[in-house]
What does this fold into?
Amino acid sequence: MRSEDELLIEAACRKLMTRYCVGLDTRDADLFLSVFSADAIWELVNDTPRTLAGQDAIRSYFESRQKKVFNLHLLQNPLVTVTGPTEAEGYCIALIVDGPWGDGALPVPLRGTEMVTEYRDRFELRPEGWRIVRRTMRKLIDKKSAPPA
It folds into this structure.
């Protein structure tokens, strides 16, 4: 049987995974950034690989994202492995669907599945609580890389 502490750590880390998606989907920069430690590393692989170091770099990338597309990140298969009392690792995938942003009225027309991504995380317990200290995002399926029909 797992300890209560381990279950609480897993719940806190899964909550960070969810807050990340909700922050992106609602374009809430503060919510989105709240999941990362001040010194976090966010690594985006594939396409144009880049590594964002620290919350300022992560905020700049967040604010530069295309504002004419309405995205929803559907989080799947979240798995958290507790590796110590102040550390854990995580894995999940996200199915990202999109539509045109338009005037903000809902519902918007569904353009389709944009991509499926894999996230691998390192979590640490910091003075402000559990945070993502490293997130690696890799595209598994991307409609932009599909061959023409």
Summary: The mean pLDDT is 90.
